[in-house]
Design brief:
single chain; about 450 residues; alpha+beta; 4-stranded antiparallel beta sheet; globular
């Protein structure tokens, strides 16, 4: 393709000028820079204002997925879980519509930059879409609907295993654990046991990659279900490995499950690089995406209800997965960027031989149009943590203590008053983004 365009400079100039116009219309700013207002508003713990700012922004068709994903997460933070899932369904429709990128978009991406392609989300974002849709249903006690998301999660993981067998995301542990909780709540104990086994094996792999430990809740789930299902050999294996016995469950009791979404996933920025192309010897300039961490000084949270104080455990390291998946994609991203930069340089030199001014203009246009694709789901959390508390049926006030890295309580949040019935499971969710001062007065 590049050879034909070298023979027809006018064709390339059309692509390039279209790209420059596209960038000028968007203020030449990257997606992450355009979203700064919402991030700053979120840092002050004001998702309603962030949602208002999001609604006022212009969202090109190629970024429509991100609009729905960010709106869905802001609505989740506001507790409007039904509206949040309406946005997630819109996001699914966008992915289905644009999953197969058109030939024209591939051409624009090759000759302008990757950001001209309609965004359909990373593998991580597509998976988390189903995860948060399932969580929204659980928060509304719509377990059957959550099961539909669990089935879609299983399909997505199988696709990942086929397409990217070396990707650690294809064995995501929290995703498996969440599906196990859903099956357990529906009384599908065999399916729940299968999901918990897969979660355990995945946590062992993620422990090597991210230092995330096997949650103590999962250990108890494996012990409980292996004994309940009469899997004596498997139960004895877990009992020896975990050095503990299964705790007896009182069917008269209820359970509170608190999900704590800590920080925000890293944000993509654009970094310019100058590199010698080994094939041509040209010194060319291009841009690559890099992640900028967005971590607070929080360590975890502590659920306080009645006389119980239960620390949350880290269940999912979204930031770590995002960094690793970008690293795995970087060779392909760099190869495209380098090839694109060389084509631009060759074309500007060829045009400049006939018209020096035109060649200069074309060279400048090539540099201006070369920007990294910094699009990502910016309201996705950096970590998902969880606490599970067993309680007698009744009404309870639930508090959440936010714990700093030095072990100090930095703030207290009221999660409200809840009612628990015999044998029920009640889910609560709290999202804490960076920006909370360490010396904030306790509430």
């Amino acid at each position: 393709m590049s050879l034909r365009l070298l023979q027809r400079p006018s064709g390339y100039i059309g692509w390039l000028l279209a790209g420059v116009l596209l960038l000028l219309q968007s203020g030449c700013a990257s997606y992450s820079r355009n979203f700064e207002q919402e991030i700053q508003t979120l840092a002050s713990q004001d998702p309603a204002a962030a949602l208002d700012a999001l609604e006022k922004q212009h969202h090109p068709e190629r970024n429509r997925l991100l609009y729905h994903l960010n709106k869905a997460m802001l609505l989740h933070m506001l507790g409007d879980y039904a509206a949040s899932n309406t946005e997630f369904e819109q996001a699914k429709a966008v992915i289905q519509q644009y999953q197969a990128t058109s030939i024209s978009e591939q051409g624009a991406a090759f000759f302008i930059n990757d950001g001209t392609r309609t965004y359909v989300g990373s593998s991580l974002e597509q998976l988390m879409l189903h995860v948060y849709a399932a969580i929204n249903y659980l928060l509304q006690n719509k377990v059957d609907e959550a099961r539909v998301e669990a089935l879609q999660i299983d399909v997505r993981l199988r696709q990942l295993q086929e397409d990217k067998p070396d990707s650690i995301l294809s064995i995501d542990p929290f995703v498996r654990y969440l599906t196990g909780l859903i099956y357990e709540q529906l009384g599908e104990y065999d399916n729940a046991m299968i999901a918990y086994r897969k979660a355990y094996n995945a946590y062992l792999e993620h422990q090597k990659a991210y230092g995330i430990n096997v949650p103590r809740f999962l250990k108890q789930d494996l012990l409980r279900f292996s004994r309940q299902l009469g899997l004596t050999e498997e139960y004895n294996k877990y009992r020896t490995r975990f050095n503990t016995e299964a705790r007896q469950i009182d069917r008269e009791q209820a359970e509170l499950i608190v999900l704590f979404h800590k920080d925000l996933a890293p944000i993509k920025r654009s970094r310019r690089i100058a590199q010698m192309d080994p094939r041509t010897g040209y010194l060319v300039h291009f841009a690559l995406p890099v992640y900028e961490p967005r971590n607070s000084q929080l360590s975890h949270a502590r659920v306080v209800v009645e006389q119980q104080r239960i620390n949350t455990e880290r269940m999912e390291d979204i930031s770590g997965i995002a960094l690793r998946t970008l690293d795995q994609s970087m060779p392909a991203i760099m190869a495209r960027a380098l090839a694109r930069a060389v084509i631009k340089y060759k074309m500007s030199r060829q045009v400049g031989e006939d018209n020096g001014l035109a060649g200069l203009v074309m060279n400048i246009a090539g540099v201006v149009s070369e920007q990294a694709d910094t699009r990502s789901w910016l309201t996705l959390p950096g970590e998902i943590q969880m606490a599970r508390v067993t309680l007698p049926p009744g009404d309870y006030n639930v508090e959440l203590e936010l714990i700093g890295r030095a072990g100090q309580v930095t703030a207290i949040r009221q999660l409200g008053r809840i009612s628990l019935t015999r044998g029920s499971k009640r889910f609560l969710s709290y999202f804490m983004v960076p920006g909370l001062p360490n010396n904030e007065a306790l509430e």
